Amino acid sequence: MANVLVFIDQPGEALKKSSLELLTAGRALGETAVALNGDVHPAVAAAFAEYGVTAIFQPVAANLDDYLVAPKAAYLAAAATAAGATTVLLDNSPEGKEIAARLGIKLSAGVITDVVAVDADGTAHKSVLAGSYTTAAKATTPVSVLTLKANSITPEPAPAATVPETSAVEVADDGTAAAARITSREQKVASGRPDLTDARIVVAGGRGLDGDFGPVEELADALGAAVGASRAATDAGWISHDAQVGQTGKTVSPQLYISAGISGAIQQKAGMQTAKVIVAINKDADSPVFEIADFGIVGDLFDVLPQATAEIKKRKG
Q1: For residue 131, what pLDDT is reported?
Q2: What is the pLDDT of residue 268?
Q3: Nearest Cα to Cα of residue 18 among 204, 40, 33, 26
Q4: Contact criterion met (CB below 8 Å) for 50 and 158
Q5: pTM higher than the cut 0.90
Q6: 2 pLDDT exceeds 60?
Q7: Beta partners for 169?
Q8: Would you place residue 174 in the very low, low, confident or very high pLDDT band (cuts 50, 70, 90)?
């Protein structure tokens, strides 16, 4: 019986770094099983073995993706029971957090979101109140459900590889009977940049760009980074709302966050304050963003960003 169950949704042909982080965190808590939604490609199977997974569960029903999150929560509840898991780990995406909430109800489990680290005894560490405090929390229920922020843990393979067993799990009928069905999908145009919530580097722009995200995008491309934005920028229609970082947008926790032309209001800080290193660029030396920045540049971003981009390109050859 596994102590920990990690949910991985549609990994495709290779596991994402955030999934490897979940497996690494899970192994620190105990024997780890995976509840997988999707096919097991050879590279994915090899990664499971390399990261010490002892069991893989898959749903009998193959149409979970035809619905919103309710059937996935039902499947995960059944998999957690089959595994005998005392901890369930999910990614910290909006969908991951919604599944966690539904799962918490089904299992009468305590749910902790926005986790950035987990101790061996299950104590979770997270930032609260717009990142102003770091707290430790531990569920008192027999089962706990945690969602882990990407880029919080360094992925590490297990000391010894495993040979995980695969088994199927029935999804309860009530998981689909009252669930909202997806009637159509529209493929989003690929930007070639990493996903914002998983990116190791994020370059974000705000009101100071005055509608011109070109310098931010050029620096992001030079760094292999994702592009983020403040609410002011997305509300102005300068960039899609998908790029919004903040309390009402996406929460990111990259290794490096470059803030350009963003004042650093509490709404924005709530979505990025757990970044490992924050670099702020702003003409206003009194801007609140400098209070949380590791490095600050007081200057015109239209001068600073092109110079940084040119220097990075020169050093990369």
Answers
A1: 65
A2: 85
A3: 26
A4: yes
A5: no
A6: no
A7: 59
A8: low
The pairing of strands 110-118 and 124-128 is antiparallel
Res 57 pLDDT > 80: yes
Distance CA(199)–CA(42), nearest Å, equals: 25
pLDDT digits (tens, 9 = 90+) for 151-169: 889 999 999 999 999 999 9
Query: Residue 82 has what pLDDT?
Result: 95
User: What is the CB neighbour count within 10 angstroms for residue 102?
Assistant: 20
Q: How far apart are CA 58 and CA 200, in angstroms?
A: 30
What is the dihedral angle through the alpha carbons of 36, 37, 39, 44, rounded to the nearest 10 degrees? -40
Amino acid in position 276: K
